[in-house]
Model the fold of this input.
Amino acid sequence: MEIITRAEATEQGLSVYNNGSPCVHGHVAGRYTASGRCLVCNKQKLKEYRDKKKSERRASGVLRLKEAEAMGLEFYDNGKPCKHGNYGKRKTSSKGKCYCPPCYEEHKKICRDAAMKKRRALGHKPIRRVTKEESKARYDKWVANNRERLNEYQRNWRKANRERMRPYQSAYNAIRWKRTSIPLSKLHLDAIVRVYEKRDEVIRATGIDHHVDHIVPLLGKNVCGLHVPWNLQILPAKENRQKSNKYDTV
Ligand SMILES: [Zn+2]
Ligand SMILES: [Zn+2]
Done:
């Protein structure tokens, strides 16, 4: 580099110049015309500043996209809030896009709208989303209209899957046993036996299968009854199956 003074460099419109004399640190390199600062010193200071900032960033858990990629992270924090004011949910695979809950919802809506637009452009009917309540109501209606079919299906299923039903049956029996094992007098046990004998009589008389039912179910959804005489009633088998383990606690 040609040796010139700072004033000459300013005159010539140069951004750097070399006046041939060393800086305070002894570098004989160029200097900036605007500030008169040594180029080598400036470079060193810049590096120091960058390193300091980088270590500060690292210490606070803030990362750059490239660093997060290198570390194989799914999410990282770039130290900046998203428009919802959330930190640390930047997705690495989406180039640092925020995936905090509100941002994610927004993103999903955009995708949905785009898909809908595409369907409309193709002339397809728009998809109407069925709510949980609607789908439940639909199922309940179907069940009400197809009770017999459903019962038959369940009967067949139980017959075909005896092995799978066994654990439930034994659990039920165990509980039933436990519920009888409260101190019952001989009188009560006799009463229970009599209910079963009466049931057999009814079957003989009517020719229709009858069950001994627990008025309050042993394994009810909301209540558990006892295997005691005053909780027994004779019901046609069909009716008993429909009753299942439901008990209205009103
Ligand atoms: Zn210097
Ligand atoms: Zn966000």
